[in-house]
Design a protein that fits this description.
Blueprint lengths: L8 E4 L5 H11 L7 H9 L5 E8 L2 E11 L2 E9 L8 H15 L4 E7 L3 H9 L3 E6 L9 E7 L3
Parallel strand pairs: 4-5
Antiparallel strand pairs: 1-2, 2-3, 3-4, 5-7, 6-7
Bound molecules: coenzyme A (COA).
């Protein structure tokens, strides 16, 4: 990714994007996909405490990501890329943009939870300087643990 041209065009998510975003959400997280209502709730708090992005390739939404920001703390709420578009740098583009927005808004720390059985995402987060700091036992509906990760930001 470093030194390469961006693969996708990023822009802020709006309610008009929800059908496309829900397609990715349901394909990516079939067991516990967010509902349209949950996503609308997130967008209702944008820009006050939320920052949601979509990633487009050839004008088609192929990924999205969301950030929550409260005072000096930020949380990666979600990030997903269509399977056929993975490993081309789009997840990194989205995460880079979330980190920049968190820093721009004055957050000094950014947190996330990731499934213990999701090494690809854990690797991406580790590449971005996130460090594991705890485990939430049985956090997900199917009993899988969540690994909590954190990274300091320059603010
Ligand atoms: C996690 C996810 C968003 C990454 O998106 P992506 O577009 O593939 O990310 P990138 O191409 O920018 O890859 C970033 C780095 O993550 C790591 N990575 C990503 N997928 C990986 C895999 N399958 N195996 C090992 N490392 C992987 C690599 O280090 C990769 O860099 P590299 O390709 O230069 O080696 C994507 O895999 C996804 O949508 N997964 C399903 C949803 C999900 O798990 N979301 C996170 C929930 S916490």
């Amino acid at each position: 990714m470093i030194g390469q041209a961006p693969v996708a065009a990023l822009r802020q998510m709006t309610g008009f994007d929800l059908a496309a975003v829900l397609d990715i959400e349901r394909a990516t997280f079939p067991a516990d996909a967010w509902t349209e209502g949950m996503l609308r709730g997130e967008l209702a708090d944008q820009p006050r405490t939320r920052h949601y992005l979509v990633a487009e390739v050839d004008s088609r939404i192929v990924g999205y990501a969301g950030l929550a920001i409260a005072a000096d703390q930020a949380d990666v709420q979600t990030i997903a890329v269509y399977a056929e578009h993975r490993r081309s740098g789009i997840g990194s583009q989205l995460l880079t943009a979330l980190l920049a927005e968190a820093a721009r808004r004055g957050a000094t720390k950014i947190f996330l939870e990731v499934r213990a059985d999701n090494p690809p995402a854990q690797t991406m987060y580790a590449n971005f300087g996130f460090e594991p700091y705890g485990v939430r036992r049985g956090y997900y509906d199917d009993g899988t643990d969540a690994i909590t990760m954190m990274r300091e930001l320059d603010g």
